[in-house]
Amino acid sequence: MTSEDRDPDLPATGEEGPRSSSLPWAGAAAVEEEPVAEGGRERGRKQLPLWLETVLLLGTAVVLAVLIKALLLQAFYIPSESMEPGLVRNDRILVQKVSYWGGGTPQRGDVVVFSDPGGWLDEQQVPQARNVVAKTLETFGLFPTGGHLVKRVIGVGGDRVKCCDKQGRLRVNGTPLEEQDYLAPGSKPSLITFDVEVPRGYLWVMGDNRGESADSRVHLGDPGGGCVPVDDVVGKVFAVVWPLGHAKVLHRPSTFDAVAGGDSDPDQCGGERR
User: SS3 for 237?
Assistant: First the structure.
């Protein structure tokens, strides 16, 4: 039989046997075995010492925590009853900063955490790093220092906030606020009457438990006039995460939707307290 007489579908053979590359079940590319080192062990990269791996992991975790705190989220706890019933004493809350990126600013109705504008807290109310762990966290900016407060934004720059009308309601730019959804039961909008204009770049803030909140009204006579600089705002409270029985997401009350923008522009915060 000549080569021309062979069945073309049969594999070619020779003294060395069939060539595997021509077998119909053979792959198009050969697979090579990994080289084996002496003693049967695979050659690989030298592993880092355990202590060095631990240091690198801890360092990475700290860097990520600092970035998250600086750019995205920060956790706080509620130290008083001033924001009841929405936020109860010892609640653990998350504050997000994304809403105020790119020139965004706090809006009426937001619950915000802000740094003490000056004199709102005494030394006993300011957290202190008293142990090694807390001091280490403070070094990396993970332990809140300097004193922070949490209140609801009632007025923003350009607004006129007045209390109270004949029905006992707050008015912002002439629009009455219906605050039953978030005020503490039995709490009146304010026992302090006032009429203030908020400068650009500042906020007028009040607690939801008005009878237990030392907020903008109480500090109306201070050098800052009771207003909080927008630059002092850490972020907006968006969730209670602990205890689980009180966990929830916070929403902006609809009563603020009806408030039109104000057109006042005083040189400084302040107004009349009666």
Answer: strand
Q: Which of 69, 97, 151, 162 is catalytic?
A: 151
How far is residue 96 from each of residues 4, 68, 138, 169, measured CA to CA in Å?
80, 10, 20, 30
* The pLDDT value given to residue 77: 82
Indicate the length of the chain as a whole number.
Answer: 274
Q: Is 82 designated active site?
A: yes
Contact 218, 149 (CB under 8 A): no
pLDDT of residue 153: 98
CA angle 235, 236, 237 (to 5 degrees): 125
Domains of the chain, with CATH numbers? 74-126+143-273 (2.10.109.10)
Stretches where the chain sits below pLDDT 70 are 1-45, 61-72, 123-146, 272-274
- The values of phi and psi at residue 105, to 5°, are -130, 160
Q: What tokens appear for 233 in the block?
A: 């705002």
Quick one: pLDDT at residue 146?
53
Whole-number pLDDT of residue 63: 67
For residue 58, the 8-state DSSP code is H
- Phi-psi label, residue 257: left if phi above 0, alpha if psi -120 to 50, beta otherwise: alpha
Catalytic residue among 80, 82, 115, 187: 82
Question: Rounded distance, CA 38 to CA 89, Å?
Answer: 66
Q: Are strands 175-176 and 92-96 parallel, antiparallel or unpaired?
A: unpaired
Q: What is the largest CA-CA distance in the chain?
A: 121
